Amino acid sequence: PATILMTTAKPASLFTGVLPAITTPFRDDDSVDHRELARLVERMIEAGCRGIITPGSLGEGSSLTSDEKRAIWETCVRSTSAPVIAAIASGSTRDAVEQARAAAKAGCRGLMVLPPYVYRGDWPETREHMTAIVAATDLPCMLYNNPAAYGVDLMAHHVAELAAKNANIGAVKDSSGDARRFAAMRSALGGTSGPSLTLCVGMDDCVVEGVRMGATGWVAGLVNALPKESVRLFDLAMAERSAADRAATDRLYEWFLPLLRLDTVPKFVQLIKLVQAETETGSERVRRPRRELEGNERAAAIATIRAALAHRPALTSH
User: Helices (DSSP H) in 52-179: which residue ranges?
Assistant: First the structure.
């Protein structure tokens, strides 16, 4: 498909930097723990994150009611002056539009727009669904591509088509795991003059590769447990100007990778919450049908986590 060059200014700056896709803390009675939620938000922003995204797949959004989502957005908005970005995901376009409007009413300053759950539509159906969400409010929007999870693959020309027709699309988050996608996006969204949308890495263990290919945002998962290390890694990657800079990035990345890879497997929610428990930054409680890790699976995860934490780097100011 032909490259679609963008001429309209886009609300891209909202989506730069490290944006935690935060976990949802639960109490013993399975209700949302809003006190811990507020503390988590505060901890992320204090570490240098630029905003908050909730409740996506890591936030167990599919197991939350509409009322719970609204309450989560309200708590997050009260807890920080940084932007709160609402993840909008539903199997129904009508419901997704209602979620988008509820998020705007709650004070969210942006939306992360997902393809429909369960039903894997073709491109015209996906385009109509995502366009309806984007058009539901004036909030800046990030398109989310995760073909493995949602069965719909937003290619570069699809993103360019949507962005050309919707002025409030400001970013695309790619979780395909293919760093080449960022080069393709750059080409489709502006070429040598630079992309008209913010390109965001959506998989933790691809963050450095994504930044080196042009991404300027990271929708991060392990940041919930290790916010300072996450912000430092992203800052190092963004600031690379020399071989020495690159080596510094690679040293921190090499330490972090065993943990970052926990973000890319089916039980990533349980694993990231387990890292939170091990770092005393949260609880490993999850909502059913998920179950906390047990037996050999849990022992292997804890061994990986503790091996990394035993050599946790000392971060100095820079």
Answer: 66-79, 93-106, 123-135, 147-150, 156-165
